[in-house]
Write a structure and sequence with these properties.
The structure holds 2 protein chains of 2 kinds. Chain A is an alpha+beta fold. Chain A folds into 2 domains: 185 residues, no CATH class; 162 residues, no CATH class. Chain A is built from 12 helices and 12 strands. Chain B is elongated. By secondary structure, chain B is α+β, with helices and mostly antiparallel strands. In chain B, strand 6 and strand 7 form a beta hairpin. In chain B, strands 1, 2, 3, 4, 5, 6, 7, 8, 9 and 10 form a 10-stranded mixed β-sheet that branches. The chains are: A alpha+beta, B alpha+beta. Chains A and B meet through helix 2, strand 2, strand 3, helix 8 and strand 11 of A and helix 2, helix 10, helix 11 and helix 13 of B.
Chain lengths: 390, 388
């Protein structure tokens, strides 16, 4: 079977530039939104998954859905600290951080609205446990004092958290002595201080969670089984830190994705209709041409293929444009409250190869669906009538 | 009148194209309506807030409880005509990651809470039954419908903030007084929470999550807020008192980034309508260039011709707009069914309808502007010479 040359298809599109541009624009807008939504959901997941380190394990109260609703007492922490499955650092001390999570309200710079900010009280081992967190300005806080370090996401978004500023909560004043960079993870959206100081200030007798490093990277299942048999550990649950943070992203990411896909599906329909209109007009305008092609010996299938390819080209150009527009969103960061942790989480639009592929496939589908009926009409044209058309 | 007929005749020349354009616009208007309705649903709590209610909560954050004895002190503040309190219970019902299994659960004071919320309408006998039984609960009509809960059913849940297994017997089902009333909430006795926690976790304090205040008139709000907050300013639990409206607004604020994105998307939709429509109009005008030249020769003025183009665009965009609006209602209903508890109150607002039609008409005008202008100015000879 002889195929219609690609250059013919390309030139046909070029011949009606304005119409082509309008259709491409429609597809581009739809793909832009589609890709944008996927990038947002992906960005949120990436932020939270990156937050967890594969070697770390988090201990929460059984059935607690987040650190905020979890309570772990000192006795449990002591048991774990002596446990052999927990990695040891310098002087044989367990690499384990006893942490307490609370939420405070701060005013945002831009909108002056109140936002929820997580404050995390940690133990001296916390930085060793999370090597991704670095102090980029000022110095680390001193244990035993009312000093705190602010994540850079919070520092850029909220008022009154600059270096040297004083925060008021828990009936006390807290001095900001450092700004931390956690490499775009959820820790960037937190304020860190001494766990014992926070607990004293808030009159809270128990920790929220414990995080420790595994002595052997593969030792999780074994350790978990051993601890589950321990009667002192009955009310807590062990999770890979990574799994825990992934769960934390689930509700919000699913919501963003569901909403985005419902909306883009609806208006992809609009773009398909746009492509259909354009392709029908293309077929109508070129009836004589189609007749000529057929008279030259091109088969119906070739004509069908040529018009379909034309439509797919149209959509692909639109899709590429949409993805390019969406790529610009990578420079944007947004911050919303994740209701699972009831605090602000800052994240960006993350462009991944998966997102690009899905966006382009989406565009191609629009092109095929929008172009099929017009292409079928062109293919069905009767040679004699088509040549005679004016 | 005759000119109008010409517009309609022209519309029917390319029936398929006209129909497709209308469908395209209708879809876009529908998406526009859906998005605006979702944004509206986000604000439902704000719209549903009563003008005479205020909320007192912990100054540092809502997550911190405030002492129970505050109740009497708040009640003594001049201007306050009623006080009640509630606690957010949280809890996990069934499969935790399913949206359908989430709804707000509050421990409330049975004697005062429903007085302060007259929009939750509960038959007197059910209210009495709720007050009598420690582990009774009252649920909203929509919630009952969704999960098939009936009076006398037992609801079992795993606690997260308050660990352990919890059970309640449904003793009342409330209905909303207004369309903006949330019918997906669940209330149970604060005393039950208090006693259970004391038993399960001795030593753990249970305080009020937040207080609800009723004030005589909304003018008194600023004064009441000041009076309440100054009272506790130097205590261990300083408070923040604000109108219920502001309180609800702060929740909406938490998702402001998502709302902004949705608003950006709704603007993009108007762009799509414009492109689809502009494409059709430009195509038609180009095909008819010679006809327009002939009409000009016959004595039609440029304005007449521009009117034809504009009229055609407006008829198409209006039809698309109306069709889109009609489609908005079923799609919103479907959406509400898919995510039932996420948006407890979801209604298509009149303003949304007006804006949808407005956007379509505006796009119609904009799409027709350039082609109409071109036709109006086109010299006859050029038009006649055009090969369409």
């Amino acid at each position: 079977m002889m195929r219609i040359p690609f250059s013919y298809i390309w030139r046909s599109l070029w011949a009606r530039r304005l119409t082509t541009a309008l259709t491409v624009g429609g597809v581009a807008l739809v793909v832009f939104v589609f890709a944008g939504v996927l990038m947002l959901a992906r960005g949120l997941e990436a932020t939270l998954i990156e937050t967890g380190s594969p070697a770390n394990v988090i201990v929460l109260r059984r059935s607690a859905t987040s650190e905020l609703s979890s309570q772990v007492d000192r006795a449990t922490a002591d048991v774990l600290e002596a446990e052999s499955g927990v990695a040891r650092g310098a002087e044989g001390r367990a690499i384990l951080s006893r942490e307490v999570i609370l939420v405070i309200d701060l005013y945002k710079k831009k909108s002056n609205a109140l936002g929820n900010v997580s404050i995390r009280g940690v133990s001296p081992r916390a930085l060793e446990l999370r090597p991704g967190v670095h102090i980029v300005q000022g110095r680390p806080f001193q244990f035993g004092t009312h000093e705190v370090v602010v994540g850079k996401g919070i520092a850029s978004l909220f008022k009154g958290v600059a270096l040297g500023a004083e925060l008021a909560f828990g009936g006390d004043r807290w001095t900001v002595v450092g700004i931390a960079d956690a490499g775009g993870t959820a820790f960037d959206s937190e304020i860190w201080g001494d766990a014992d100081q926070f607990m004293q200030a808030f009159g809270r007798p128990v920790y929220s969670s414990l995080t420790f490093r595994l002595a052997q990277p593969g030792g999780f299942d074994q350790l978990k089984a051993r601890l589950q048999a321990d009667p002192r550990m009955q009310y807590v649950d062990l999770k890979h830190e990574r799994d825990y943070y992934q769960e934390q992203s689930k509700t919000l990411a699913t919501f963003i994705r569901t909403l985005g896909i419902v909306v883009t599906t609806i208006f992809s329909f609009g773009a398909m209709v746009g492509a259909m209109i354009t392709m029908y007009a293309a077929v109508a305008n070129r009836t004589v041409e189609v007749g000529t092609l057929r008279a030259l010996g091109f088969r119906r299938r070739s004509v069908l293929g040529a018009f379909l390819v034309e439509s797919v080209m149209l959509a692909l150009v639109g899709g590429a444009l949409g993805v390019a527009l969406a790529a610009l969103l990578s420079f944007e960061r947004i911050s919303v409250v994740n209701f699972q942790s009831f605090s602000e989480i800052g994240f960006g639009f993350a462009l991944s190869p998966g997102v690009i592929v899905r966006a382009l496939v989406f565009a191609v589908v629009m092109g095929v669906v929008g172009g099929f009926l017009p292409a079928a009409r062109a293919a069905r044209l009767n040679i004699v009538n088509a040549l005679r058309a004016s | 009148m005759k000119l109008l007929r010409l517009v309609f005749k022209n519309l029917f020349r390319h029936r398929l194209r006209t129909a497709l354009t209308i469908v395209g616009i209708a879809t876009a208007v529908m998406a526009f309506g859906l998005i605006r309705t979702i944004v509206g649903a986000w604000n439902a709590g704000v719209t549903g807030a009563a003008a005479n209610r205020m909320i007192t909560r912990h100054r540092v954050s809502l997550i911190f409880p405030i002492p129970l004895p505050y109740r009497n002190e708040i009640a003594r503040v001049p201007g306050v005509t009623g006080v009640s309190w509630a606690n957010w219970f949280g809890g996990v019902y069934g499969e935790p990651n399913d949206f359908k299994n989430f709804w707000p659960r509050f421990a409330v004071d049975p004697d005062t809470y429903f007085d302060l919320y007259p929009e939750f309408q509960l038959p007197p006998d059910q209210l009495a039954a709720f007050k009598k039984e420690r582990n009774a609960c009252v649920i909203g009509r929509k919630l009952a419908q969704q999960h098939g809960f009936k009076l006398g059913d037992v609801i079992t849940m795993e606690g997260d903030i308050y660990p352990g297994s919890w059970q309640w017997v449904v003793r009342g089902i409330y209905t909303g007084r207004d369309p903006s009333t949330d019918e997906t909430q669940m209330f149970f006795q604060f005393a039950y929470l208090f006693e259970q926690v004391r038993q399960r976790e001795p030593g753990r304090p249970v305080d009020a999550g937040f207080y609800v205040l009723r004030v005589g008139s909304s003018d008194a709000m600023a004064r009441v807020a000041r009076a309440v907050d100054t009272q506790f300013v130097n205590s261990r639990s300083p408070t923040k008192t604000e109108s219920e409206r502001e309180f609800q607004q702060s929740f909406v604020q938490m998702s402001s980034a998502i709302i902004t994105s949705l608003q950006v998307i709704s603007v993009v939709i108007v762009g799509i309508i414009l492109l689809v429509l502009a494409n059709t109009i430009i195509m038609s005008v180009r095909e008819r260039t010679r006809e327009y030249a002939v009409l000009k020769t016959l004595g039609f003025s440029g304005r007449h011709l521009a009117g034809f183009v504009l009229g055609e665009a407006l008829v198409i965009s209006l039809s698309g707009g109306v069709l889109g609006l009609l489609l908005t209602f079923p799609i919103v209903k479907g959406f509400a069914k898919a995510l039932p508890t996420f948006f407890p109150v979801i209604n298509v607002a009149p303003l949304t309808m007006a804006l949808g039609i407005g956007a379509a008409l505006l796009a119609g005008l904009a799409a027709a502007a350039i082609p109409a202008n071109r036709v109006m100015r086109m010299p006859i000879v050029v038009g006649l010479r055009t090969v369409g």
